[in-house]
Amino acid sequence: MPTPQGPTLRELAVQALSSTMRGYDLLAPKFDLTPYRTPDRVLDAVTSAVRPLGPFRRGLDVCCGTGAGVGVLRELCQERVTGVDFSAGMLGVARSAHAGAAGAPPVDWVRADARALPFAPVFDLALSFGAFGHFLPEERPLLFDQVFASLRPGGLFVFPVGAPPAVGSRPYWSLLGFDVAMRVRNALWRPPFVMYYRTFPLAGVVDDLVRTGFEVRLLPLEELGRRQDGSPRARLVVAARG
């Protein structure tokens, strides 16, 4: 739920009527006070699942936002971490939040579009949290190709994917309603604000990763529990560059 210190309804409305980049520049100072920040329990579950897959020297947080994933990488990587995002406002908040952490690897902050990453293949581990709704399905192959090109051979690209809500449930209708509202907004208003919850189906994502050249496996994030049918509430996608 929103907090009293978080953005007001007016601020959220201004953000929603801006471009994706400008919207996040505006939201950046209060982003971590919104429900949109990746919960700590998800960050902790991913950290626990990825740690045995290492060791890792250099890490990349793709679409780092205010740096939640950078915090994960600083626990997992030994030498250096990079956060990349297209929003100067979000990078500014991230830089302040992670300044001066003793004993952790240093961080480089890079402003760039994830569809045109400016990196050589130097990273052992890339991850991303909560950003894929900002990419249309037809953009996924380019995004995955850019991450692939930034990884060393054998490097891993990891991210959590939650199980879809049951058809007809309250979360199902909530996400569907949000996506419909965004499609109407983008049909009637320019510039577009790209954010959808239902455009990242696991099967299609795995197919795109494999076509890019990744070897993919799925690990249950057991710390996040299981549904009534016994299936995990969330899985970790582990895509390895061959």
From TrEMBL:
Q: What is this protein called?
A: Class I SAM-dependent methyltransferase
Annotated EC: 2.1.-.-
GO molecular-function term, one example from the UniProt record: methyltransferase activity
Please list the residue ranges annotated as the Methyltransferase domain. 60-155
So which domain of life are we looking at?
Bacteria
Q: Name one GO biological process term.
A: methylation
InterPro entries hit by this protein: Methyltransf_25, SAM-dependent_MTases_sf
Keywords associated with the record: Methyltransferase, S-adenosyl-L-methionine, Transferase
